[in-house]
Amino acid sequence: MSPISIFFNRFHHHRRCCNLSPYLRKYISTCSQSEPIEVNLSHPIYMIWGSNTGVGKTLVSTGLANSVLSIPNSNHFNYIKPVQTGFPTDSDSRFVYNKVLEIFTQKKLLINLFAENHALRGSVSVAKEFFGFEIENCDGGLRELCWNEEKRIGGDVQEGRDFTSKLVCKMLYGWKEAISPHLAAERENAFVEDSLLLESLQKCLMYGVGDEVGVDKDLWTIIETAGGVASPGPSGTLQCDLYRPFRLPVVLVGDGRLGGISGTISAYESLKLRGYDIVAVILEDNGLINEVPLITYLQNRVPVLVLPSVPQDESNNLIEWFDESQDVFHSLKERMLDAHQQRVCRLQEMPKKARDIFWWPFTQHNLVPEETVTVIDSRLGENFAVHKIRKCEYITQQFDACASWWTQGPDATLQIELAREMGYATARYGHVMFPENAYEPALRCAELLLEGVGRGWASRTFFSDNGSTAIEIALKMAFRKFSYDHGVLKFPDENAVDKSFEFKVLALSGSYHGDTLGAMEVQAPSSYTGFLQQPWYRGRGLFLDPPTIFISSGCWDISLPKGLQSIKLKLEDTTFSSQSELFSESRESSDLAQSYSTYISQQLLLFSESEFSHLGALIIEPVIHAAGGMHMVDPLFQRLLVKECRSRKIPVIFDEVFTGFWRLGVESAAELLGCLPDIACFGKLMSGGVIPLAATLATESVFDAFKGDTKHMALLHGHSYSAHAMGCTAATKAIQWFKDPVRNRNINAEEKKLRELWDAKLVHEISSHPAVERVVALGTLIAIELCTEGNDTGYGSVYATSLVRKLREDGVYMRPLGNVVYLMCGPCTSPNVCSQLLRKLHREIDEFSRIKAKRLRSCSVELAHKTDLPTASVTTIALLLNG
Amino acid sequence: MSPISIFFNRFHHHRRCCNLSPYLRKYISTCSQSEPIEVNLSHPIYMIWGSNTGVGKTLVSTGLANSVLSIPNSNHFNYIKPVQTGFPTDSDSRFVYNKVLEIFTQKKLLINLFAENHALRGSVSVAKEFFGFEIENCDGGLRELCWNEEKRIGGDVQEGRDFTSKLVCKMLYGWKEAISPHLAAERENAFVEDSLLLESLQKCLMYGVGDEVGVDKDLWTIIETAGGVASPGPSGTLQCDLYRPFRLPVVLVGDGRLGGISGTISAYESLKLRGYDIVAVILEDNGLINEVPLITYLQNRVPVLVLPSVPQDESNNLIEWFDESQDVFHSLKERMLDAHQQRVCRLQEMPKKARDIFWWPFTQHNLVPEETVTVIDSRLGENFAVHKIRKCEYITQQFDACASWWTQGPDATLQIELAREMGYATARYGHVMFPENAYEPALRCAELLLEGVGRGWASRTFFSDNGSTAIEIALKMAFRKFSYDHGVLKFPDENAVDKSFEFKVLALSGSYHGDTLGAMEVQAPSSYTGFLQQPWYRGRGLFLDPPTIFISSGCWDISLPKGLQSIKLKLEDTTFSSQSELFSESRESSDLAQSYSTYISQQLLLFSESEFSHLGALIIEPVIHAAGGMHMVDPLFQRLLVKECRSRKIPVIFDEVFTGFWRLGVESAAELLGCLPDIACFGKLMSGGVIPLAATLATESVFDAFKGDTKHMALLHGHSYSAHAMGCTAATKAIQWFKDPVRNRNINAEEKKLRELWDAKLVHEISSHPAVERVVALGTLIAIELCTEGNDTGYGSVYATSLVRKLREDGVYMRPLGNVVYLMCGPCTSPNVCSQLLRKLHREIDEFSRIKAKRLRSCSVELAHKTDLPTASVTTIALLLNG
């Protein structure tokens, strides 16, 4: 009897949903809630991929099942086939189930085996055939089949007794036609969304793990895909993309046929291009010794195993073949086990090794105990996959809420596109040197920069490696331009410069421009600039304290610095109900604008009277002082600063390294300010957040100040990887992607800005919370300053530590700036995700403040006891002191 | 009569070699000499790839040929099948030839057509069948078949008259068995090396181009590959790797069968991972509408065309099918033509656009006319593929002799490996932030650094983006360490530091450490540091003039700076016959060593007596001052400097950004010096030359100076992409590759150094040339200072410009450092290639000096005429003046 007919016999005995055993119910769900993807590491979980259809994935699954279960032990083998077409005629799950039973029966193994086979859901066509009557369409055309069969073989078995070994086979979704799943889904009008499929799979992965069945050392789970690696799943998403969130290690079943070498290598590469780890390639011997070139090509990377030729005779039950293949499957299993154990061991040792040999930037190593080191196994889109140990070890998701230090933009789709682009750029260019040369990625990138963030003013692109170098270059440009405009240099004789001539910059306190000496010199003294950090720092600037803006109780408010506090303010000048009011040009005619201008002029006059040096440049971070604590500077103030400098022919530099490329909801923050620079620096998000690249854009008149007859007049600055092809390729892709409404649904194409990502109501609530001092929400950023106790504020503060740890437990990876916490998403992140995050943050702040309050109370009680004062009074005093 | 039998009929009429027509002889060669790969851009040349075997590549080639030739015009279509197995039973070349003739005959097109079909070489088995008798094995088992057939159809044709249209089909190499070429080659014992195959192909590409047949506007060339994209060629090299040097644009024939979506996408990706441009995907309709997901997936990247289903009936002559497919092939042809023209237009406009919008580093734009801009289409291994216009436009190779500013290491194989690694790293990690985190690439890279260049001293890795930032970090580390050791700081109170306390560094004149302000401060005044470049530069160092070493007339010689010139020298102390003598530790006991030590001590004493500042660090580039003009510093002097500083507890920094990772023949130049630093900086080659990454390594005691209870004590320096996964992945791959004797044949595993790459005899000759001032040859570097006329030396010199231009014409891309020219290869470059380069350089220097001498002579004659002195005397005076 052929397997198919056996199957149909059993089929008529299927159980209905109502008769489901309780454990079956557990992994059949309507999957309404979104759970984070988690992968348990306590046992091997592998995905079997094929380099083509018909290469024998199911034979490999069966061979593995047999190999695991044949060893006398309490083994448990889960086989999962998430997507099956041609069902029920074809059922890989059933094949594994039947074949293992057949092997066990024929070989008379002295092992007790309990085997089950489940078919969970199918299209209406499948269900019709299953139940034998018309079925209403439901759940997007998919119907629960809730079918299972089971069999016990082996020794004397009693009801309820634990079986030695267990095989559980499951098909999650079945379609009737034996075609590609996306096509079957369409033809049978039975769709399953990717998220639903992943959730169902996630649930199955949990089955058999942990408390439920006890810690089972020899638990194995194998998931078998459908067709080739890049065959579409039911939704049309390629399977290699679909299953990427799990990033399960891979066994690739290669192709032993003519043309199979190519197919196997290409499949291998498609998997690599999605970040999968391939642990072994296994293929059937078709007499073409395909394994030889495969071994040569894949040497040092992955072992290649060869299975004996599979008998083509349909009547052959393959028992003999499985017997012959036993050693190969055993090797494969051992290899898989080794790889799994190696992976786990490495993950375990990483925190210690990292602490031993890394020197982390901006990190006091003494404050980072081993258990707080985050081991990042991978990332996909906005999410880290991190290694965690609770009851057992697993990989779980954390939203990267600091956008990996403000660099991140890609969603999962863009990341995979960038992967291919990075591969292509390396293969096409590697790196080629820039000066006096032209190549497509650099040229295209420069074009896009000038058409985009440089539109209307910039005409030259100077590439470098990071924000810091971009700033150093900008300063050199500005100083030359100033010298040129003000006749400081009698060109080209630089010796003619008065030796006592000195440049300073005009800048704002609290701004930050990078860590190299030149970039540090243009920031006001701070924790970063002391003798301990940079003994050479002098602070070569006139640093003005700017007015800042923040949301408090849902309303935008201005806070004025000391020098401006004497101004009489009109309420309408200082409070705003919306962002657009705040950025409105009409503010220029306000009394406040007048006061700002006067203040700036006075400061410039004072400087010129008291100092011998000249202000050779204005440098500002438009709108947001990022590293300085996510403060929003009043845009009106910055606009007027630019105006005053322009009228004095002081070159204007915008440091848009943080603010550029949609960080603040517009491509360039200059759009928010409503005025243009002479020079601007970009980095971080520019390259799509995968690779360091920076650019300093300049006007043609800045460029002209470097023209001359000799090389000495040129800007003699550059880095080895200037305009490197890979960075420029990434930037080219990312710049276009972010602003494309088809790719990025957050783009409002007409207004050329991002839609509001942070739910206004939630922002209002958070800004009204008693534990919150101020909030800034703009574009992809929401920053929250926490009210602290006493002087525990600023960069060195560890005030927020416990809050941050709680959030990390809750799936949000955050890193505070002292007592300021922030969420930062990418330009493409869905507002739903943002709201989820915001709700989590709100909840945790609430909890956090309750704990702090409780501590204050208990402290007050203690103090009251000591001082014999009423507790309430002590609390009031404590609060006032800390206020 | 089936095509096969027609073939055999004709086969017996084949001509022997001796009867070859002259034009046939031209493209049959023994291919003994190595020609650079060139691709003509005057007409479309495409490569047809298949996503599997049997997907219809030859049908597509035929359809294209038909489409091109069917238009009444003087068209010329070349079809090339470089590798054919199953020959002569299968012959794709013959299929195209026959089928086009058949279509033309049947359709009675009013176009004259002259068609030829050639079979050039075959295995002995093939030849045996061809010639009908036993053939001796020759040429590695391959035999010239020199077989051709031809046919004329159309109007009234007279002998010798030019035919309107022409089809030339060629098979280059044939094997008898219908299996993968590598296997056929092995079984038939008939091998062809990759280089030979490429050369044969190159010759065929030249056929029909240019003068020979006149400029033919409608010339097309199509090359059809064998099997799938990653099917091995005859040598076993994957075809996608084999043909990469041409990087011809691609038409990918997709797979319309079940599983074909996956195969097509994976094939597409394998081609992208080799840097190919895919212009169109075309596939047969097999009723599975595979094109829909393909179009969705490939949208915005490449169009997908669908051919009608091919009749499976073997008796069908497909004429009807070709007729039905006509429009599709027409669209394909148009798309190919468009893509070709777009490519050429873009290449043409690039120099102007580049000059308009780039701001090149270290470049006086006024000195770069449009025609000197190098347009780089791609690179492979050490070679650029550049766009050139001579008689016609083409892409040609140039050896990248400045190693793209000293970054390059990969050969072609490593580059393609890195491409896959870069794709994988992007897909797995993108970028993840570093502080307090651990992830595999960063950890592995740090481990490899500490085991390799940091072995024996370093225990901490601080990552940054480029050499400049690595130096700024090193300085911060050194100053803190000094403060800690010398009690400058009353930890942790930095306010306790005496305000007048100032740090300087001890450094050597002529060394260069980067372009950011901090890095600039530690170099002596130079063209880079004046007011024109960096108004903030002060030069915070005690800069000693070092003794330098160079080869002159084949012998290593020392040149002492002023301060040391009073020393009495022994000849054995100052001349060396070999490198090993030069670096020998025994020199430490020489009189010269004594003099060096005394001199250093005196200088340090003088400094401490006359300055208020402290020397907080020693910073040196070990052995070679790179940007300073490729000067070799006497290693003995540097070793003694380190010794003197160590005894004074002055932290020692090695700037190995240039010298690290085999640049000087050893992994770390510290090995040459024979002493260790406290801090060392690495970059450039570290990441395999594809991506910016730098590292500052430090000892644990340096690290300890930053430990404390607060964040303020930590090293507050970092860049957004610190330890980015992609850079660390590239570095991990490259570091291991360079030192692996299996991968890198230049490695002498025992001695842990590179073998000698520069032919000693040639170096001797060059160093003896009258036009050459001095030579430095070490590791991957050979630098040659040219004798100049008058004061035209140093960085600003344009003395070498004409030499450099000539070399670029000669296939060597060079960029001089003033009057110093250099060749720089990678750690894996074959010594043969190095010798070829050196010979070219020698020849060009010779030519260059002859021209200069001629100019001098004519100038002398003129002067003699004016002054009435003998010409010889004038020449002598002129030479003395210029000397």
TrEMBL record, chains A, B:
Does this entry carry the keyword Transmembrane? no
Q: Which GO terms describe its molecular function?
A: adenosylmethionine-8-amino-7-oxononanoate transaminase activity; dethiobiotin synthase activity; pyridoxal phosphate binding
- Primary subcellular site in the record, as a coarse category: mitochondrion
Q: Name one GO biological process term.
A: biotin biosynthetic process
Keywords linked to the UniProt accession: Aminotransferase, Pyridoxal phosphate, Transferase
* Record Pfam families: AAA_26, Aminotran_3
Q: Which GO terms describe its cellular component?
A: mitochondrion
- Location in the cell: Mitochondrion
Keyword flag Transferase:
yes
Protein name as catalogued: Adenosylmethionine-8-amino-7-oxononanoate aminotransferase
Organism whose genome encodes this protein: Thalictrum thalictroides
